[in-house]
């Protein structure tokens, strides 16, 4: 018995449907691949811009090596500028990362120098703004505890800086409640033969998430210990500076962007950080 003509029509229709489906699937996969590639390229460019921005330093090719030209009162003012610039900057909200949380980041902090003329005496070059490029690492631990560290080296100078942080979230926060955290932190200057300088921070911060946007603020104190090495005319300076800060974190999935304002003593600092969470 022959096959009815209607079966040919059905076969042709089925072939058209199959062809249309394959064309649609091909276009979808190509578009998805192109979109994914574009997003990947955009993230790489953003990270590159952040890194390049971190290492953009005003023209200041000098090292701290003439502290003997400062008087004792000038050395204290110089140390206050350094303490404000080199003390720990949070650059993160109060909420904990969680036991599986892990973040790597790049950023920079720009601090206004209140006594630029003293930098001319101590380095031979006037400095009005110090920019510190930074590499960050954060890790969440049990019991709402986070630890963090950063490393910085200022191009064209002998300034190197490391920092450590231990943060405990008293309240971890939620949909209806804010997060509240207590932080202890320290920084240590290295690379400068004439100066040993360290800072210790203690502060309290609060943050509250709204969708992808998390504003935060806090206040505390910074203790600075600045010791001249091999300079008989100068003595060690130890003092405390008050500290307030506020910022915002924008969560973009596997990455996040932070902007922060900090005022330590009389000096204002502005920080930016691009982080990648795993």
Describe the model:
It is a single chain. This protein is α+β, with helices and mostly antiparallel strands and 278 residues long. The chain has one domain: Beta Barrel (Lipocalin). The protein is 26% helix and 44% strand. The protein is built from three helices and ten strands; from the N terminus they run ααβαβββββββββ. It has helices at 5-54, 72-86, 116-123, and strands spanning 102-112, 129-141, 145-153, 160-171, 179-190, 195-207, 213-228, 237-251, 255-264, 267-277. Strands 1-2-3-4-5-6-7-8-9-10 form a ten-stranded antiparallel beta barrel. A hairpin with a 2-residue loop joins β9 (255-264) and β10. The longest helix is centred in the first third of the chain and has 50 residues, at 5-54. It is elongated.
CATH class: Mainly Beta
Q: Based on CA inertia axes, which overall geometry fits?
A: elongated
Order of helices and strands: HHEHEEEEEEEEE
Number of strands: 10
- The fraction of residues assigned to DSSP E strands is 35-45%
CATH topology: Lipocalin
Q: What is the average of the pLDDT values?
A: 84
CATH architecture, by name, is Beta Barrel
Biggest sheet record: 10 strands, antiparallel, barrel
The span between the termini is: 67 Å
Helix content: 25-40%
Number of domains: 1
What class, by secondary structure content?
Answer: alpha+beta
Strand arrangement, major sheet: 1-2-3-4-5-6-7-8-9-10
Number of helical elements: 3
Radius of gyration: 27 Å
Give the low-confidence spans: 1-7, 38-57
């Amino acid at each position: 018995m022959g096959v009815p003509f209607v079966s040919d029509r059905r076969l042709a229709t089925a072939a058209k449907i199959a062809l249309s489906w394959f064309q649609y699937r091909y276009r979808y996969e190509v578009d998805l691949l192109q979109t994914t590639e574009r997003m990947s390229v955009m993230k790489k460019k953003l990270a590159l811009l952040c890194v390049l921005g971190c290492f953009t330093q005003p023209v200041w090719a000098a090292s701290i090596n003439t502290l003997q030209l400062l008087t004792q009162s000038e050395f204290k003012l110089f140390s206050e500028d350094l303490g404000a610039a080199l003390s720990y900057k949070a650059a993160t909200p109060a909420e904990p990362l969680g036991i599986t949380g892990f973040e790597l980041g790049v950023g920079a902090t720009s601090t206004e120098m209140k006594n630029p003329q003293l930098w001319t005496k101590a380095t031979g070059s006037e400095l009005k703004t110090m920019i510190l490029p930074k590499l960050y690492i954060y890790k969440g631990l049990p019991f709402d505890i986070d630890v963090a560290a950063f490393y910085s080296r200022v191009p064209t100078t002998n300034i190197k800086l490391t920092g450590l942080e231990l943060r405990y979230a008293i309240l971890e926060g939620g949909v209806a409640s804010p997060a509240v955290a207590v932080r202890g932190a320290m920084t240590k200057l290295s690379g400068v033969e004439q100066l040993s300088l360290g800072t210790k921070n203690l502060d309290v911060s609060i943050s509250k998430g709204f969708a992808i946007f998390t504003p935060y603020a806090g206040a505390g104190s910074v203790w600075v210990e600045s010791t001249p090495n091999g300079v008989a005319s100068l003595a060690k300076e130890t003092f405390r500076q008050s500290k307030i800060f506020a910022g915002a974190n924008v969560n973009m999935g596997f990455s996040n962007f932070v902007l922060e304002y900090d005022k330590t003593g009389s000096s204002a600092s502005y920080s930016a950080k691009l982080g990648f969470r795993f």
